[in-house]
Structure formats: C-alpha cells, structure tokens
Amino acid sequence: MNEENQVYFIDSDQLPPSALERKHRLEQDPSFRADHMKYMDGMQVIESDIKDKVLKAMGEYDYNSYTAADVERALSHETCSIEDFKAFLSPAAAPYLEQMARKAEEITKNHFGNTVYIFTPLYIANYCQNYCIYCGFNCYNNIRRKKLNFQEIEHEMQVIAKTGMEEILLLTGESRKYSDVEYIGEAVKIARKYFKNIGIEIYPVNVDEYKYLHECGVDYVTVFQETYNADKYETLHLLGHKRVWPYRFDSQERALMGGMRGAGFSALLGLMISGRMHWRLRFMFII
Ligand code: SF4
Q: By three-state DSSP, how is residue 86 classified?
C-alpha cells in the first residue's frame, strides 16, 4: 500500500459493502487496478512524439546540476530557453525568487500590457465516474449530484452575462454517462448567445468529438494532467478513464486537431507530498 496516500482515503457510510470492498482493494492492491499506460476501448491513439520527448526530458533533468551562474545567465537573457527554465526550476534558483518575479513581470507586460483576464466557471454537472483520491467529486464520495437541464443552464448564463462577463468556462465532472458530448454541445450553443469566448473543462475526448464541440462554439479546452510523473499518477487515479495517463496527456493535441483555438493544461502542485495544500498551476495557449 502507498502509505503517503493514506491521508486521502475517506470511506462514506453510504457505500454498500461490495462497493466499499472494491474501493479498499483499489487503494491497497496495485494489481487490482487497470494498467494506467494502456488505452481503454474507444480512446483514440494519435501519431505524436511529444509524450516521448517530454518523458525523455523529465528523465534527463538533473536539477542539482544547475548553479547560481546558470540562474544569473538565464536572468540576463531577453528570451528564455528551455535550458533557462530548467535553471529557474532548480534549487540553485531559490535565492533569486525576487529577480525571477521581476523578470516574469517584465515579460508579461511586454506581451500583454496591464491586462487582467477574467472568466466565470459554471459547473453544469458534477457527476464523476473516476476515483481520483484527492478530489471530493470522486465516484465513491457521498455528495449531492446535479445535472442542470437546458432551462437551468440558460438561466445561469443570463445571470452571469448580466454582470458584464464576456467569457465563460463550462465544467462537468468526468462522466460520459451523465454529461455526454451532445449534452455539452447543446450547453455550448446556449452559451454562444451570451458570451464571446467559451472554454470547456470536461473529460478528454477524441478528435471528432472536439471537432463537434468546436462547431457548437467552443474556443478552448482545458485538461489537467495533475502530475506528469506517471508512477505517481498511477497511485492517485485508481479507477475510471482518467486512470489512463497517455490518453489524457494527448488531449491538448487532439483538441487542436479538432480545430480548437486554444488548449490549456495544468499541474496540481503538492501531489508529490501528501497532506500538502494543492494549488493548480494553469497554462493556456490561445492561437
Ligand atoms: S475526474 Fe476530476 S472531478 Fe472527477 S474525481 Fe477526478 S479530479 Fe475530481
């Protein structure tokens, strides 16, 4: 059993004995879980070498090999290279936090000026079929579940639009059964009436489904990988399609292949150390 994950395990008193038994087995017996590197039926495999490149770069990254001189050199560059970012992430960069913050501010202002980007997240459903042990929405947790109907969705959007917000992010828990692609597409069509920019944060889908959602009006897609360490990922995502690390990894590429203008991804900071507060570090590329 992975001792450091113990802090996350919570048993609902509403679970029937058979479900509780399965939950415990998933938590305690890695051989009981599906292979997290193997695509499940229906998951599209695309031709891409990005995954391999990222894994290779992660494997080769030796953060202890960077020195203060590397960090100072990186700070002096007008445009930062991958090597510069590696130096910034190394322990040698710890005394340079203030300089790095100034550098980040300077680059941000050069590109975007004094812009603040605000969007409203709207959960249209919170059903989820995954067991991510750190998340309260997980399928074993006893919370009130809800799926908004189209009248309720439109009402929420009208209220949000009245505040002057022009961008919306539609979210669901990750359940194809309760929030299928057509349901999400219809919600997006309603959103198009009220908002200039529409994002979705849903379960990863195949290229043709991203294409359909883009045709409904979606501009960008966000998928959180949570951790790029596949071994750690395996101990945190015990059940459901989210367990499949490579399919999730390819999501942004599939979204762009489906015509999306933007793709966001994120890491959940703190997962490598149990009991720590989690922060999501969000990146977004809009093209
Ligand atoms: S898939 Fe998302 S909503 Fe569902 S349990 Fe995992 S983190 Fe929570």
A: helix
Q: What percent of the chain has pLDDT over 70?
A: 93
Residues 114 and 106: their CA atoms lie apart, in Å, by 11
Protein residue with its CA nearest to atom 5 in ligand 1 = 138
Strand order in the sheet with 262-269: 120-125, 167-172, 197-201, 220-226, 262-269, 279-286
pLDDT digits (tens, 9 = 90+) for 62-89: 999 999 999 999 999 988 999 999 999 9
Nearest to 60 by CA among 83, 80, 37, 38: 83
Residue whose CB lies within 8 A of the most ligand 1 atoms, among 23, 137, 235, 280, for a mutation test: 137
The reply to whether ligand 1 has any atom less than 6 angstroms from the CB of 174 is: yes
State the distance from the centre of ligand 1 to the C-alpha of 141, rounded, in angstroms: 11
pLDDT in tens, 100-149: 999 999 988 998 898 888 889 999 999 999 999 989 999 999 999 999 99
Q: Which atom of ligand 1 is nearest to the CA of 138?
A: 5
Condensed to tens digits (0 to 9), the pLDDT of residues 30-63 reads: 999 999 999 999 999 999 999 999 889 988 999 9
Compute the distance from residue 133 Cα to the ligand 1 centre, in Å: 9
